[in-house]
Design a protein that fits this description.
Blueprint: E1 15-20, E2 29-37, E3 49-52, E4 57-65
Antiparallel strand pairs: 1-2, 1-4, 2-3, 3-4
């Protein structure tokens, strides 16, 4: 299971767990499917930022299925 910090590991349609901006203090994870990849760099230490199919935006903490 990848931790979501490398852009190459994340593709549209993957099921992932993200942490929303409002949940960064608590670390609460939100599960969803990647619609768009918002981070341009190949690596980000806090996770690649994505938009889910339901419109929520957050940083990938783990990839559920690849």
């Amino acid at each position: 299971m990848s931790d979501g910090r490398n852009r190459k590991d994340i593709k549209e349609g993957l099921e992932v767990e993200i942490v929303l901006k409002k949940d960064q203090r608590t670390g609460k994870l939100t599960k969803g499917t990647v619609k768009d990849i918002l981070t341009n760099s190949s690596f980000h230490p806090h996770g690649i930022k994505v938009r889910l199919t339901d419109g929520q935006v957050g940083r990938v903490q783990s990839i559920i299925n690849s």
